[in-house]
Amino acid sequence: MTHQDTARQESESPQADTVSTSPDLHAIARAQQGDHAAFAELYALHKRRVYSLCLRMLGNPTEAEDLTQEAFLQLFRKIRSFRGDSAFSTWLHRLTVNVVLMNLRRKGLNLISLDEALDTAPDSGPIRSFGAPDLHLNGAIDRMTLEKAVQDLPAGYRMIFVLHDIEGYEHNEIAAMLECSVGNSKSQLHKARLRLRQALAKTENREVTP
Amino acid sequence: MTDAFLTNPDFSAEQAAAAEDACARFQASMAARIGAGEDLQLDPHLRSCPRCQALVRDLEAIAEAARQLLPADPPDKLWDQIQRAIALESAEDPSHD
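Output (structure tokens, whole complex):
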């Protein structure tokens, strides 16, 4: 297991985190009693994960800041209702997803009919893959390039990709969150990966061409 | 087989077009079949087509790269903003304290 894997398991993956860690437990108990320093500790422990989730789901740093703030405000309001039935980070992660989805629904993004949302994307022509380079053969996928490509995905694709491939949610969980079918989640994820492949191939071609 | 059709000068233009059409049909069907829960690894075209196998490998590589992405730090000012919002809310509703 690499350091990256270990770090990810400790605090980043909703699936890996099945029990709250010791620092969490003390801080949670104190924060539930209204201890502001304990709440600051919880912020320090979870800020990266909450902000990254918002940033990747929204693709916009300013909105991500606003919704990170909203998520921690919600946490402040609701922390007394946390009973420890699930890991705290899982609970907070789900709270954050709900904050983002509520925001997107308020803005009118139709989360049920993702295809419809995608069809309005400016460059959503048919995806043809023939002749595209095999990224395995051309080298590893650059992290920054992938982040940018994810940010540029249409909202529907981006949500499914972030929730499944980055955050580790299962299709049945995503289907429940987005109020769509499991099949819809699976097929949209495939289309999102195709779109990313197309974007990554374009980037590679630009880098190769003098 | 498809790549051979596309790159071997002995194959006719019609054969190359037919091979590319087979790839097109397979790739166009992938999303719906994945959505229906079908295991595409068993598809006869995929098993015999290096180009479509490369596509599937690329998609798997993208998923693997996504799993390796690390979280980003929020700007430092954000905690000050959150503290101010909490203070405001606490002042309006002291039951939070």
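The mean pLDDT of chain B is 86.
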